[in-house]
Amino acid sequence: MVLIRQVALALGAFVGATLLALLFGAKNLGTALTFGQIAFAATVFALMMFGARPGARGRKEDTP
Q1: Which residues constitute the domain of residue 30?
Q2: Using the 8-state DSSP alphabet, how is residue 58 labeled?
Q3: 61: in domain
Q4: I want to staple 31 with a disulfide (CB 3.0 to 4.6 A). Which of 15, 19, 26, 40 is the partner?
Q5: Does the model's pTM come out above 0.85?
Q6: Structural domain tally of the chain?
Q7: Each residue of 35-62: pLDDT tens digit?
Q8: Among 12, 13, 10, 17, CA closest to 33
Q9: How far apart are CA 14 and CA 21, in angstroms?
């Protein structure tokens, strides 16, 4: 369940940043997709650094 939420968050960041770049006047779709890719990479990095760890205790999402 946690993996599905993390994948949805990363894809949502990609789509959201792409649409915002288009909304704010990106020259073309390639430029907007570049901003989406940057947001995707930043989100994946944040999930890896601050996300739930398999061996961590005290996290609610780790308990069945």
Answers
A1: 2-49
A2: S
A3: no
A4: 26
A5: no
A6: 1
A7: 999 999 999 999 999 877 777 665 565 5
A8: 17
A9: 11
